[in-house]
Amino acid sequence: HVLSTRVQSWYRGFSTKNRSIKGIFPATYICLKPCKVDNEGLFESVIPIEDPVVREVTLVLREWGNIWKKLYVDRETYKFSTVRKVMRELLDWRRQLLTGTLTQDQMRELKLKITSKIDWGNSNIGTNLRFPRYP
């Protein structure tokens, strides 16, 4: 969350994950996104304005990233490889959505593929870590 511009290529702000630590950082370190600010002032909330599917993929990848790391530490080779493959597909599809070069039909089709893959992953990568053969 950017609070102010210090010098032309530096910002002052904080990470939304830990609001208590404020600091300065180079403008090249971040990507500014459009957002909506509710309840400006002491208890404001910042809501990014982006495609809901893109946001969901981002959240899913963060969650699955933790599971993926645990699989690596536990030396679960097959499960680790499967999660990596699914995460790479989601990353690639997310990139395609963000480029803005797809037609409306291609976007709709890709979003269906993404939600289907997320549903598959949540069923198989969740806390019980069942892994049938990857589709």
Instruction: Kindly state the percentage of residues in helix.
Output: 40-55%
Alpha plus pi helix count? 3
- pLDDT < 50 runs, ≥5 residues: 128-132
How much is the average pLDDT?
A: 85
* Main sheet characteristics: 3 strands, antiparallel
Order of helices and strands: EEEEEHHH
Give the termini separation. Answer: 39 Å
The fraction of residues assigned to DSSP E strands is 15-25%
| Sequence of strands across the biggest β-sheet | 1-2-3
Radius of gyration: 18 Å
**Coarse structural class:** alpha+beta
Shape, principal axes of CA atoms: globular
Would you count the extended β strands for me?
5
Which helices and strands, and how do they pair?
Blueprint: E1 2-5, E2 10-15, E3 18-26, E4 35-38, E5 45-48, H1 52-73, H2 77-99, H3 104-124
Antiparallel strand pairs: 1-2, 2-3, 4-5
Helix pairs in contact: 1-2, 2-3
Q: Would you mind describing this structure in some detail?
A:
This is Dedicator of cytokinesis N-terminal domain-containing protein. GO terms for molecular function: guanyl-nucleotide exchange factor activity; small GTPase binding. Pfam families: DOCK_N. InterPro entries: DOCK, DOCK_N, DOCK_N_sub1. It comes from Diploptera punctata (Pacific beetle cockroach). It is a single chain. The chain is of the alpha+beta class and 135 residues long. It has helices at residues 52-73, 77-99, 104-124; strands at 2-5, 10-15, 18-26, 35-38, 45-48. Strands 1-2-3 form a three-stranded antiparallel sheet, with no helix packed on it. A two-stranded antiparallel sheet has the order 4-5. Strand 2 (10-15) and strand 3 (18-26) form a beta hairpin. The protein is globular and about 50 Å long. The termini are far apart.
